## 1
Amino acid sequence: MGQQHLARPVTVALVEDHQVVVDGVRSWFGPPPSPVELAAQGPTIESVLGVEADVLLLDLNLNGTMVIDRVAELCQGGQRVIVFSEHEEPETVRAVLDAGASAFIGKGRATRESCVETILEVAADRPSVTPPMAQAIATDEGPHRPQLSDKERAALLFWFQSMSKASVAARMGIKERTVRQYIDRARVKYAAAGRPAPTKEKLLICAIQDGLIQPDEVTVYTSLAAQSPPDRG
Amino acid sequence: MTEEIEQVAQRYARFTALGAAVIAAVWHVGYDLTVTVTGWSSFRWPWLSVAAWLVYSAVFAVAVRSLLRDSRGPARIVEPALVTLALDIVVIAALHPGQLVGISDWAWGSVGWIGVMLVWGRPRWKAELVAFLAANAGIMAAAMALTGTVDRVSISKYLVVISGGVTMQLGYTWGCHMLRARAEDAVVLARRLAADDALRESAQRIHADRLRRYAAIRDVAEDLLQRLADGADPGDPRVRADCTAGALRLRRLITEREDVPDRLVSTLRERIEAAERRKVMVTAPPFGHYLPGLPDGVREDLLRAPVRALDGARSRARVTVSAMSTMVSVAVVADNDDLPISATPVREPSGVVVTYQRQGGEVWVNSIWQGP
């Protein structure tokens, strides 16, 4: 499923009420041929509804109103949503991830490379963990939080607070590839522990296909799979 | 102000309780002792009445001790209450037949005050006092029935003493209870007003602080816009860096949400501002609005090394705080070339662990506290 997107540019619909940010994002994507293409943009959610795009890039604060409660509704249709906001506090990040958002990009630290990388990973339904997401997942103490191993939690926290995954690897005395594995597994577990949403399902299926996680480690996924036959009887 | 009102409420509780003791004492000495001595001949066994008077005094002393201590009756009241009620019977037994409800039959009119003292300040005082007074009235009614003292005069005396006693004892207790309840309401209200004042003062302080920072950023932005209007090149990396720094500061102000910032957060903000005044570009994601309570010394140990890294940053720094209910982690990544670092984690006596790492021209300083 993910590999199909790599053959053509990933299309993005952007909901953003500040023209300067729209221009900035467009310049990040660059002129064609580019791996990412801005298919549509508008200042409200309604202005891009109906547009066929692989990823919806959503600013949370539109004309002074927070639209956190619209994220679930957007994800329910299977739309991959990446939130792009300066409201990076863990509570907000957890709320949008729980609602089904595939990723959260903090405006404060985003760079062209990190933004494009996140969009490509999300379009391919691969786990993507930005620093604000790492912090939000690692510090979640809610009743439905996933059981993270100590190393997974440490990798997330260090990734949020350090300069790079390489520095996390040096700190933990492991390979950078292993650091990525810890972080990605934590993301997958987090998706599995939250409320079900089609976008999370896609992420879980890909994670299992890639061998990142075993089916029996994902209770939400298996229960969804169990529901798929028409007659469960 | 709140303290004064609390003191007034405490005095109300104390002196109304002692008021009950004074009434009981005056009654016990002024009436009970007087009729025992002056009515000596009306007793078959006057020394038994004296003994009853002394037992009453002992129970009185127990109750007064408790009232003096915490303006409440004793923790256990069943035993002293039963002993006190038994005095009704003892005094009746000490009297000559025919003296029941007479002037020397002092116990049944007095024990109600002991009941008042015993139930004082207890949560179920009303039910307990009513039960005590009813038992007292019941004992006397039973004695009258058993001894055949049912003439009109005796019944009238009984009704006058019982209704008078009950009215005074219940009335005093209820009135004082209302007085104490109103005083406690006043304390609650005073505390609420004081909390509102503190919150308002804190909000004003935070607002003033934000206005000051907005003003500082506005000056920087004005200067920047002026330079651009005067022909500064937007492509110039220095102009772009200044624009980015201004935007970062504005963004941080917009996303700050703490009503009352923790001292750790306040200190970090101060150092971030100081760094920005030195033209260091600082990124600091919102610190969130939950930090656990920290034992003495932890906050200082958490801040020391990261703040040193931030203070020595040459041109850029990133400040982060992560917190859970039993963990706080503060980190600074900065292009600080001079910071002495330790290759191994440094363990502070407070339990804070500080680690250092240099990589690609940057230093990463991370202090972590993990609670029990």
## 2
Amino acid sequence: MTPLLRVTDLTVAYRRAPGDPDTALDAVSLDVPRGQVTAVIGESGSGKSTLAHAVVRLLPRTGQVLGGRIEFAGEDVLRRDDRSFRALRGRHIGFVPQDPIASLNPTKTVGAQLREAFTLARSPLPPAEVDVRIRQDLRDVGFTDPEPLLARYPHELSGGMRQRVLVTIAFSQRPELVIADEPTSALDVLVGQEVLAAIHAARTRHDTTVVLITHDLALASRHAQHVVVLRGGSVLESGPVTEVFADPRHAGTQALLASSARVAHGRVRSIAEAYRRRAPVGPAVPEPAEPPAVELDAVAKRFGTAKRGTQAVDGISLTVPPGTTFALVGESGSGKTTTGRLILGLVRPDRGTVRVFGRTVSSLGRAELRALRRDMQVVYQSPFESLNPRLSLRGIIGEPLDAYRAGTRAARLARVHELLDLVHLPRSYLDRRPRELSGGQRQRVAIARALALHPRLLVLDEPVSALDATIQAQILELLTEIQQALGLTYFLVTHDLAVVADVAARVAVMRAGRIVEQGPTAEVILSPRDGYTKALLAV
Amino acid sequence: MTGVITGPVAEPVAAAPELPASPGRRRRRVRELHVHLVLLAFLVLVALAPDLVTWHDPYELDGLPFTAPTGEFWFGTDEIGRDLFSRVVHGLPISLFSALLAVAVALAGGAVIGVLSGLRPGGLVDRGLGIITEAIMAIPAVLLALAVITTYGRGAFVAAIAIGIGEATGFARLIRGCVIQSGTLTYVEAARTCGAGPVRVVTRHIIPSSYHPVLSYTALHFGLAMLAIGSLSYLGFGEAPPSAEWGVLIAGGQKYLAHAWWVAIIPGLALTAVVVLLSRIAYLLQEDPA
Amino acid sequence: MTGGPRLAGVVAGKLTHAAVVILAAYSASFFLLFVLPGDAVLARIGTTDTLGSADVSGLDLDLLRDEVGLSGSLWTQYWTGVTGLLRGDLGHSLVTEQPVTQLIGEVLPNTLILAAVSLAVSVPLGFLLAVLAVAPRSRLVRSLASLVPSAYVSLPVFWVGILFVYVFAITLGAFPSSGSQGAASLVLPTAVLALLGSAQFAQVLISSLRVELGSTYAAVTAPAKGAGRFRILFRHCLRNASFPFLAVFGLRIGQLLGGTVVVEMVFSRVGLGRLMVDSVKAVDLTVVLGLVVVLAVAYVVINALVDIGYLLLDPRLRRRSTEVAV
């Protein structure tokens, strides 16, 4: 059987400056077999989104197809002009965009946006039947009561709900092919699961061919039959998932797979399985005789007023032994970031006490808090936002030294050099600015800055979630190395239990401001008691 | 209603560029900006020493009245035979420096109000200053300027201060927004957790991150202030004849439009050219090079 | 949705705020005019040009004060003014002794007509320019349509007026160059104001249209459904791009009421602006204060209408509840 979609030698470039085209796809060829799910995997910059957009001809104005063929159902669609190509969209090719927040028109109701898909596809269905079908389709993707939904505006829905509406739109005209561009990357893990379930349900019901663009190997291996691995605009290899994952032939694919300890022998292991197979990396839990580094006792924090507000943290208690990594796991809105900020003294608790190295943070004055800050530092989630773009690395890493006037100018410079060595950045980078660095390098800079004053505690707020998988592994390795060399305590805030399994000695799982489960990592991962923890582990 | 005299509003300056900035595009913009800044520097030089580029006295009757533009009188002569080119060149410093004074007043006033209210948004200071700002905005800028001029006397510099007061409200709003926004930036918080004190945070992080939009807004309002000062002179509240201020020149030439168009039209073209230059600089400054 | 009591609270809050702003504007102008110069009487004398402002020592100031209606202490005058304000009484002109409300009422229709006609022209023209700046395939047309508005707002209004007089009245003889009688006299001043207005509108619309056209729903979702460029522009983006326009629209009405001075002078028209200039020149302080009050009221009313407009048009502001059945 001929493939539904066949791409041959597709080359796409972005026009950056005259005479300086930036090639995003370089002679990419792939086949998408009919009736199956083909995953296109790759890290950022691999060209996977460009590929998705090129197929539906939705490249930004600067993007240009320089050569190649895109055959859809046997026809070279690149020969079509824009007008006749438009007839394919919606009716024959559906598209699920990446960012559910911006992908729906904010001033039109969900119902109007669903109906528009039928109008634009010149659906032969009479309006009454369109309404019936919209309701049925919404039920199929998991909305038990679609009726009130139709009159809602997008801002009234959660991200997951919006994404399911977008899935409904993509499948509404029963297209032969649906392309989903990172449909879950902007969502929480469990919500992403619902969206994938919705895609799966719609796909099986209507026998649709799906192209799933993703950076998540676990997701690809679980949901796809075929896989295409992209890197730097070229196809590394492609084939059935079981074959490619079990026996990667290309070194690039092997590196990609190695970055995820969970994929081996052609299938994804559960987090627990992956954990069991490795010797625990984190240092053993020390004797309880030592005073704890961090202690939270019945801490609560509410934002907003009593009526309209959120209880971000709702009476949590935890103890972090010194010299170890304590992981706080939860989805967005669980209160985990607020907990980190409570420890840092950036937010004051309404109730309860926060003690760091025996000192009660909430009772400290400004000067005392400033003194304590020498002992605790923070690494933020996004290395793109946490570094001032106007300063050089010398200014950024040296900021704490300058702020505390630590030593002479020469001594500070020497310390900055030392820190660059510590995070494995060349000393020649001293005068570079953040925009000249990659994401991983920026995060190294943020770590170096945090270490400048020889702190004893680092609060790591999602330190790797903005990074590609291979880079994640490198940064986690660096953090472990530094911890062992300097004997630091880490308070790790994350949504990813896989990361936790790699580095933490103790884990607490947080949901809606409360801790639902905590204990040594082995215990929580291997024998979870709480249903929510089990759900997170099952991903 | 800050720009009431001249009309243009500031909001559109926050225009989104048609394409995302690429390295090549950024380089081209920076080059264009430099060309414009050199032009502006040239104008300032001319304004400082107008006699270097003119060969007639702006106040002497050197030619026949209403001589059309020639090689000797580039812009022609006015109703009593003064060289219009020389008058336009000598009018430049009045327009340029009084507009500079106006934006300086507006920027200083706006910065004080904006920073004070932006540090604690929603606080008592913020709300009080908000009412004052809004009250000033509710009075049309012309009326405000006219009132100040009547009480303090005529002249381009009084007019400039009057305009500056009206414009300060716009600056205050912008700077307040910048201060509030930069307070939420992650790297500002990161600096705080690094132990940087308030002074250090403001000077090293908040001011550098706010200064681009403010600079761009200042350049734009520099031009608008020139228009406003011209308007006031035209209305008879700024400079008075025989001053060579451009509004005065235009007002004086209006009577002779029918047979000597250049007397009113050429000074207007000069004013437009300078304002276009400034608003182009404002546009080019919008994109943060960092 | 919020209930009645909360809505009433919001309205009451807005009204109080509006009253405070008007009062503050009045007070600021009052003290600016009456206190800062030291003595308004001197200012009056100084600008009437009959006496040198330096030599006033020999004059009987109290007598003069009585003459120009500025007797009594400052606070008494202020209090009289404020209480008069509450009764809708703006006092009498110091020069002609006519009621201020009557003076303003006489010239207001002229200004209103000018403002209304120029708005009626500039809104469609502004939208047209904005669409031309983003829609056509031709890059040249797009750049031209986006350059013209930003160049036009750099022109001095009074000079454009003069230019129009030169071209259309003097050279072509098509329209009268001055006066406030008849429809023909309205053409040139309207054209000057309408072009400026449409240039301002176009500037805002262009930038917000570009933002909207670049956002995912317009750049990806809608075309993926099969929507063409014009449908995306007209059915999706234009409305969403109009919200920033609304604010500028309100601002523009205020400008037209208070800022037509220059145009009225160029074309020798009667109107609020001219009254403003004349009364300031004559130090007719009650008229000036009356104008401040009228224009400040216009300002707050327009702002309130713009706020209501936002509430009606933007569903993001209308409903805030996020609870929905899954």
